[in-house]
Amino acid sequence: MSRAALLAATIIAGSLPQAALAVASQDNTSLDATEPASSHSPLFAAELERAREFVDGMITEGVVVPVPKDPGGGYTHEQHKRNFRAIYQGGQLYRITGEERYRDYVRNMLLEYAELYPTLDDHPAQANQNVGRLFWQVLNDAMWLVHAVQGYGDIRDTLNAEDRQRIDDNVFRPAVHFLSVESERTFNRIHNHATWATAGVGMTGYLLGDQDMVDRALLGSDKSGETGFIRQTELLFSPDGYYTEGPYYQRFALLPFLVFADAIERNEPERRIFEHRDGILLKALRTTVQLSYRGYFFPFNDAIRDKSLRTAELYEGVAIAYGQTRDPALLSVADFQGRTVLRPNGALVSRDLAAGMAEPFPFRTLLLSDGPDGDEGAVAILRQGPTNAEGEPATALIAKNSSQGMGHGHFDKLAWQLYDNGNEIVRDYGAARFLNIEAKRGGRYLPENTTWAKSSVAHNTLVVDQTSHFGGDAKLADTLWPTQLYFSDAPGLQVTSSVMDSAYPGVTMRRTWLMPTIAGLEAPLVIDLVHAQSDEPHQYDLPLHYSGHIMEFDFEPISNTAERPVLGSDNGYQHIWVDAEAGLQDGRGALTWILDGRFYTYRFAGNGPLTAILGESGANDPEFNLRREPLIMLRAQREGEASFASLLEAHGSYDGAAEQTLDSRSLVSDLNHQRIDGMDLVRLTLKSGQRFAIAVSHNPDPATAHSVTLDGESLEWDGFAAVIALPGEDN
């Protein structure tokens, strides 16, 4: 048996130690040059056939390397993307199968790039991004290099000296020079664009034996360590593995982080890169999975909402992390993805998954600190309810009390989302962008990303005087964040609470979410307490963006049937149509909607009169760029304190096929909210006559006892919050 076949058989059999696996993944001979794909375990075999189909199709088309012209989504842009994928997978196929046609195709493609690359100047479709050569922005050039250098590494040692020299000197060395010297400003940023650039440069350095490239990639252009890949691992992730730009960009950045780390581990194992900063990169991979619901990432900041765990960046990431940890929970993620990579780590994932070694991923309630030192706010995830086959609870509440997230951040401190029954119930808009769809402004961010998506009113947060947090100033917002006051994952009463005193001058905002278990009510049940304090009079708006169709409301609005007015003129308000308004003198009301056969009631109470506004996004949008989504806004004019207490209750079901409806109306008959000595007392009366109080002291000391007399009833509890059963109405 050949050395390559022996190596492959050993990997698949599982007897190769981890150190040898690291060497094997760098080996330029085939993993299995003799056996058919059917001999591999199913996931790996399917990946092999998928790669064959794509690369064989590219070979049939011939080598096509066009002169760059188009922005994202255009022909030349997409062709160069297809090319780097073909180089990457073609190299893998040669290494695994030993078929020279794959080697020859990759070689010929790179020789064409050797003719083109030296002739390139700034891309003609450059926009406001840092300009690239092959692509309209330098980020895409870095992505090209990260993929192409891996495919080149799989064939380089088999090329004659002349071809190798031409490709080295006319493609990879100038690409490295462009990224790390000509684009130094991007290269030395602490940002995902720089992560891709440093990864491409460093991996090229390892392949070409150029230590200068490697050092620049690891330590920055001046090799001081103030920038570069190592510094990025220290500044872009919190100690809990949360990436500052949010889940969407965490997913995107993890590929260069983990692929380059894998190369570092193979070439310089003495660096112990996967142990660096308490294993931050492996921790970040697990955190990325936690930041999802039914596989889709929570759409914080400039997020494209249809991105999920089924993404190329995480196929690689999960395989590398499994190769390092052998964590069986990662196998269940790979099973959900239905994909892996054509590397030894991918073979291990496939083999162990086929052997039944997977365990459910431990989705759980947790608090993820933000900032490199963990002191720049946090993201709280509260989960409860029955789990699905993947072990994920049915309900998830996400409280975004984190930092701004740099240039991709939105102005939405103390905002939240709620998922239930497989759906997003309380929504976050994400980005206003049609990625790589040329018809929509060339696939770039749309103007409405600034005028709507980033604005505070587009989110489920408190808005003061119809202006966005920090006045919409991103530089200011980058220096300020909420303070996490309390968090509890205790069964029966999960809690998160934060305060923000700098989103508006002279206004302090505090928000507390609780997920209590109340006998007689279905899950989820969310209590939301919002307080604002100021010495000056203000208008306070509390929007709730929800998914579903209105069933009923218990107030009498004036509907706009003849015309459709707009709520305001700027700060996002210009994009809200007003469909109805209701003045609520007692500050109380309820709205019920239905989504996917389940009913949801939003019941609220203010500390004075409220105006309830029923509206929809999409006004002042002549190009039809925005999604039309419903909202309810609670508006209060207050001097001193403004408070809002609300309950979101899931209840009942509707089966259209069976024409059957159950509990379509709320099971709560009354919500009462009072504040006494800085403490919140929310009393619920159920239609069954049962009564409960959710008492919140806002004191995190669990040993502190609290006692309040309310309407003749004595309430006693210890610690931050408690659920207290009260005598029923009939008692």
Helix and strand topology:
Layout: H1 3-13, H2 18-24, H3 42-61, H4 75-97, H5 100-116, H6 138-155, H7 161-182, H8 184-187, H9 192-208, H10 211-219, H11 229-235, H12 247-267, H13 276-290, E1 292-293, E2 296-297, H14 312-325, H15 328-337, H16 344-354, E3 366-369, E4 378-387, E5 393-401, E6 415-420, E7 423-426, H17 447-453, E8 463-464, H18 474-477, E9 483-488, E10 493-504, E11 507-516, E12 525-545, E13 549-553, E14 558-559, E15 576-584, E16 588-595, E17 598-606, E18 610-617, E19 630-651, E20 653-655, E21 660-662, E22 668-676, E23 679-686, E24 691-696, E25 705-710, E26 713-718, E27 721-726
Antiparallel strand pairs: 1-2, 3-4, 4-5, 5-6, 6-7, 8-12, 9-10, 10-11, 11-12, 12-19, 13-16, 14-15, 15-18, 16-17, 17-19, 18-19, 20-21, 22-23, 23-24, 24-27, 25-26
Helix pairs in contact: 3-4, 4-5, 4-6, 5-6, 5-7, 6-7, 6-9, 7-9, 9-10, 9-12, 12-13, 12-14, 14-15, 14-16, 15-16
Give a written overview of the molecule.
The chain is of the alpha+beta class and 731 residues long. The chain has 5 domains: 1-35, no CATH class; 42-230, Glycosyltransferase (Alpha/alpha barrel); 236-362, Alpha/alpha barrel (Glycosyltransferase), CATH 1.50.10; 366-666, Beta-galactosidase, Chain A, domain 5 (Distorted Sandwich), CATH 2.70.98.70; 667-731. 32% of the residues lie in helices and 27% in strands. GO terms for molecular function: lyase activity. Residues 370-630 form the Heparinase II/III-like C-terminal domain.
